[in-house]
Amino acid sequence: MSLRRLLPRTLLACALLAAGAAVAAPLDFSFGVINHAAVGGKGEDTLRQALAETDADNLAFVVVNGIKSPSENCDDTLYNARHELLSQAQNGVFLSLAGSDWITCRDRENRSDAIERLARMREIFYSGEFSLGATRLPMLRQSLTPKFRSYAENTRWEVGNVIFATVNLPAGNNHFLLDGGRNNEFEDRLIANRNWLQHLFAFAALKKSAAIVFFSDGNPFGPPPKRSFFRAQRDGFAETRRLFSDLSGNFAGRVLVVHGQAPKPKTPSHILWTGKLGNVAVGERWLKIVVDDHLPQLFAVADADGERR
To answer: Residue 302 and residue 214: Cα distance in Å, rounded?
Structure first.
């Protein structure tokens, strides 16, 4: 019988985390990813159902991509209600910030309220040293570095010999704006994300980690923006894509990017590999990913019944 069958959920999580100290420890666990940013106008009921389903599964942790859909309100009432909902989950829950959480927000004069809402999201959801949910898993934030103290949403944690991390890459071309002189947020975050990725790969190499798994809203490996009638749109993910390619090429383990950009309708999610670098879209239903060192590529997508594909 496996360790996962013998231990209660909380003890299992602690055992998996402690196993990170032993590089040779076998890897055999699963985690879930909920893409709430892609549920359209279905709102809280869809998120509540996905959390209930993941609570009932045998998972090491759950990552939620986005706490609201683009059509929902951006006020503190909704933010606080969703924080409470995530806190009630049985699994340890990590939040991957989505563009729909802040980029689409408008104030009463219908002006962009993105920067203020981003700051508010950080205050409500990204404080403390542990995950949300009943199973409290320890994490570290980029905001521990004084130069990047604003970027609390970039977090990392470990299970076994695998490093997991969120990185703020919102859908919608990484929040690059065409209008001149309005890209301070994009440019500052580009620097922070570069530092974050370099730090993670250096840390993983030092620990001889088997893999790094990143969670983001946008797909840094997607097609570039289409050219407009007047000019070409800058690819907001170009620098990050090159950085992923360069850093993963020098890393001995595997690298997996789990993003919230849904695949084509009725197309099952599957991992697309280019050498040691893979990416997978979550889709509208929650996704289960298996980590097993008996697998040729270490990772596999599974359905809710555990069937791997």
So the answer is: 18
Burial of 203 (0-12, 13-18, 19+ CB in 10 A): middle
Cα-flanking dihedrals φ and ψ of residue 32, to 5°?
A: -115, 155
User: 202: closest CA among 194, 144, 187?
Assistant: 194
pLDDT tens for the chain, 309 residues: list them. 343 433 445 445 544 454 444 445 788 999 999 998 776 656 788 899 999 999 999 999 999 999 998 888 999 999 999 999 999 999 999 999 999 999 989 988 888 899 999 999 999 999 999 999 999 999 999 999 999 999 999 999 999 999 999 999 999 889 988 765 678 999 999 999 999 999 999 999 999 999 999 999 999 998 877 766 555 678 999 999 999 999 999 999 999 999 998 777 667 789 999 999 999 999 877 999 999 999 999 999 986 566 666
d(Cα 281, Cα 56) in Å, to the nearest integer? 23
Helix (H, G, I), strand (E, B) or coil at 194: helix
Eight-state DSSP code of residue 160: T
Give pTM, 2 decimals: 0.89
The set of residues, in sequence order, having a beta carbon less than 8 Å from that of 247 and lying 6+ positions away, is 197, 198, 201, 255
Give the β-pairing of 299-302 and 287-292.
Answer: antiparallel
